[in-house]
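Mods, move this if it's the wrong board.
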Amino acid sequence: MSVRLRRLKADFEKLNSFFTAESRIRIKKTLGSPPEKYQFEYLVTGMEKRLDGKLQVRNNFLIEITLTGSYPRMAPQCRMLTPVFHPNIAPHAICIGDHWAAGESLANLVVRIAEMLSYQSYNVKSPLNGEAAQWAEQNREKLPLDTFDYTALLSIGEAVGRRADGSAVAGDTCANCGRKGSPEEMRACVNLHVACPQCAHACPVCGSLGCLKCSLVACSQCKRTVCAKCSYRCASCQQTVCSEHAGACAVCREGRCQDCLVACAACGQSACLEHVKKVAFSDGRQDYACTGCIGRAARAGTA
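Not the wrong board. Structure tokens:
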């Protein structure tokens, strides 16, 4: 058997073990034995542009991956079979060539495409879709659209399925420390990592179960360890805080920590230090006003 055929066979075996019927990435069709062409279904939250020009969220995508005669030396050919709105994806191509190496597994590439669809990964510097790049730049605070850890699908300690109520069924190996245990003892976190009781962590803000393999962040103000979706980086001081100690500037709408927000004495809303000034009001007092309300003070001026 040639080196290429051995690689194709190994790819197929790995793909079948990682992407099951219960996975958010599924093999829909194959061509060849071992397969040289795949059709994958991605249950991923992404974006599409409708025929009327409006953007909307889409939760499933079909992608075709062809392994050419030059594979694995050359990158697979990847193309969309369903509409998508992404800076690095065009109808005829998915931009993965600059990052391909012959040693990368096909399964890793399949996961990397999921991260692109969900806007966990995108590059606005050299886009295939300029309009999507501009949209991503303007909506950075809303991204990614989907925070699921798709690399967990390649982990030994991943959940092995789902129950009828939708809850995950844990395997018997902790993805963090490797400890063995019964499925009743082990727990599946929000990213489908299997965690033993010692490695599991419940977010104190939203209550979701995470584990030591997940992205956990310590709030610089309350020092609590929270999950990634409940943490924010202040655009002023760059400190990371939990959602209970964060807010948004009423003027620029960017997220800030509470220490970098000041209440406007005119409208009562909070503004960041870049969009608030201390001014003289008509009653003689001096107080802070956001840039949108400075004109309301009869004697507006910097103190």
